[in-house]
Each structure stands twice: as C-alpha cells, then as structure tokens.
Amino acid sequence: xxxxxxxxxxxxxxxxxxxxxxxxxxxxxxxxxxxxxxxxxxxxxxxxxxxxxxxxxxxxxxxxxxxxxxxxxxxxxxxxxxxxxxxxxxxxxxxxxxxxxxxxxxxxxxxxxxxxx
Length: 117
Prior knowledge:
The protein is mainly beta and 117 residues long.
C-alpha cells in the first residue's frame, strides 16, 4: 500500500548562487519500511544556514518535523535528521513508515543574513 505521496522537485535558487536539491521526487513504501529524504545544497556551505523539515499532509495541514535544531513533539521517536552540513547534506529518515506519514515533505533553509535584510 502507498504511504507517502509525491515529493515535489525542490530546486530553489537563492540570489542566483545557492541551489537546493531535494530527492526522491516521488516515493511509495510499505508500512514498516524505512524512508530517507535527501536535501543537498550547492553554491554555499550549509554550515551557515538554519535548516528545517516539514510535511504537508493529505488534508493540507502543515506540520514541522524538525526546526531550528530540535524536533517537534511527536516526531523525535521515529524521525531522524542527520546533520551532514559539512558535506552539504541534511537527510531526513523515517525509521518505520506508517499511514500517518503520508504527505509531501519539504526542506527549508535560511541564513542569518536573510533575517537581517
């Protein structure tokens, strides 16, 4: 049975220099299977950015999974973010997918200079 719906191609250009690539684009898994979403940055170092993951459920509701260095309540047990910012990667893993995990997953990043402008 399908658990996770499409993941949009997230190729975002910031100031013409930084690009984010998120994959896989679309994924269907069986209940209990592990799932990994990747996000890679090109054009700058992730070490200088704040990083977050969120999902939009089938009903359109938005839920933060990981934001500003910590998990939102309810996500810390089965969801794992691995900080690989030194390699410009920030993967999100679901240890054992279930029906409640269906949705579209997004990676969001910003740096402190963006907040100052």
